[in-house]
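[Q] Does anyone have a clean structure-token version of this?
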Amino acid sequence: MTPRPPDVLVRIGAALDALANALAAGDAAAVLAAEAPMADAAAQLAAWRPSADERSSPDVARALVGIRGSLARCQALGRSATDFSRAVLPGAAYDRAGRRPLATAAPHHLTSVS
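[A] Here you go.
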């Protein structure tokens, strides 16, 4: 039998990958659909208490490296999506908590030169 990481790590990795794929595709419905599995996986991860064997397992270490990479990908794609939306719709931007920021940058206007 091939050793594998605990299910909690498999779930958080899969949830992050689904979110990253949705962000990369620009699929708003898929981003929203990824929210519940991501929240469930994050709650399970927060409650996980690894055993001594799990703490020293190379499989767990490899899974954690993969999870960190998936998280970094989500963060980069999220920043990119935020930057894009601010550029396209400067007055409609929201912060990470879903609130409108107190001060938004003035929209950029191109001036035509004839």
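[Q] Thanks! Anything notable?
[A] The chain has one domain: 7-90.
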